[in-house]
């Protein structure tokens, strides 16, 4: 069984849409590549999302990611995002208004549950957005 991502619902929705559905998927591609995938898909992830993805991988809150590591992540992401060709009049991906667990077996899809400790600097879990 895969470990669910412990980040905010909008970030989870964006990541799911680019094929990253679990912490194992995130670990396989890395924080920077996941961030860049979201950018390529037309989403507008913040640097805080990038740091939260790294925090998720490190098992800490995004604000606990060392400043030097944040600068390194930011530089890597900026270099990769610069390689993305400009859009040619294509609309960005649609806004995410709700997140539902579509893997529910019976009846209507149930709302997904999220932990929002990412906004709490004292939180020991790695969460974002």
UniProtKB/TrEMBL annotation:
Which Pfam family name is an example for this entry? TfoX_C
Chain ranges of the TfoX C-terminal domain: 7-76
Q: What is this protein called?
A: TfoX/Sxy family protein
Organism for this UniProt entry: Denitratimonas tolerans
């Amino acid at each position: 069984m895969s470990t669910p991502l412990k980040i905010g619902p909008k970030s989870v929705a964006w990541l799911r849409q680019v094929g990253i559905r679990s912490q194992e998927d995130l670990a396989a591609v890395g924080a920077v590549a996941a961030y860049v995938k979201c950018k390529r898909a037309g989403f507008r992830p913040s640097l805080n999302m990038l740091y939260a993805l790294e925090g998720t991988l490190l098992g800490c809150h995004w604000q606990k990611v060392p400043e030097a590591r944040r600068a390194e992540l930011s530089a890597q992401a900026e270099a990769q995002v610069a390689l993305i060709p400009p859009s040619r009049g294509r609309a960005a991906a649609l806004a995410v208004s709700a997140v539902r667990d579509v893997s529910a077996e019976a009846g209507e899809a149930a709302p997904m549950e999220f932990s929002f400790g990412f906004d709490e600097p004292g939180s020991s879990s790695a969460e974002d957005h």
